[in-house]
């Protein structure tokens, strides 16, 4: 009897642990602007993907980044969630993200970058929602002006704009 009780407690503990690991994300109420697929444990679709509308990204917590970029003149104020916040929200278990733009341009971004630097998923520029013509709706942005080591072609290629999807590989 003791053995059965002990096995039952172990099973319940494992079930509780797995519930902590995998959880459903809220469903979007607005237009979906980002789809995350692959090795993720937290989803909100029957197909096992995590889809986000703008408000869901805002709810991850907004971070401000004032920086210049190689693709713009001067310095702009960008705001959006940290890339690592998205990684945590979807329960990503990977070393690499494959990020795809609306025009199907893609880049591989090491997850390590999101913890080494405050990489943001910019959704606002100078207080306005980023439009497609302004590299929106989402732009992977590194803090170029705070770390001169980020001003190189490798990092520029990882700075995907007009993002539509991220595959966790």
UniProtKB/TrEMBL annotation:
Which parts of the sequence belong to the Oxidoreductase molybdopterin-binding domain?
A: 66-138
Supply the source organism for this entry. Marinomonas colpomeniae
Q: What is this protein called?
A: Molybdopterin-dependent oxidoreductase
Pfam families per the record?
Oxidored_molyb (PF00174)
Q: Which InterPro entries match?
A: OxRdtase_Mopterin-bd_dom, OxRdtase_Mopterin-bd_sf
Signal peptide residues on this chain, from the entry's feature table: 1-22
Which controlled-vocabulary keywords does the entry list? Signal
Q: Specify whether Protein transport is a keyword of the entry.
A: no
Keyword Signal in the entry? The reply is yes
């Amino acid at each position: 009897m003791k053995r059965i009780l002990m096995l039952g407690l172990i099973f319940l503990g494992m079930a509780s642990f797995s519930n902590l690991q995998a959880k459903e994300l809220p469903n979007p109420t607005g237009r979906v602007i980002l789809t995350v697929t692959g090795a993720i444990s937290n989803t909100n679709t029957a197909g096992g993907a995590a889809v986000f509308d703008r408000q869901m990204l805002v709810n991850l917590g907004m971070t401000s980044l004032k920086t210049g970029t190689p693709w713009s003149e001067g310095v702009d104020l960008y705001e959006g969630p940290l890339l690592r916040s998205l990684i945590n929200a979807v329960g990503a278990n990977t070393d690499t993200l494959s990020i795809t733009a609306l025009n199907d341009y893609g880049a591989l971004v090491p997850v390590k970058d999101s913890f080494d630097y405050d990489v943001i998923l910019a959704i606002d520029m100078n207080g306005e929602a980023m439009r497609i013509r302004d590299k929106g709706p989402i732009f992977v942005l590194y803090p170029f002006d705070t770390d001169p080591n980020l001003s190189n072609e490798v990092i520029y290629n990882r700075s995907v704009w007009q993002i539509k999807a991220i595959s966790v590989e």
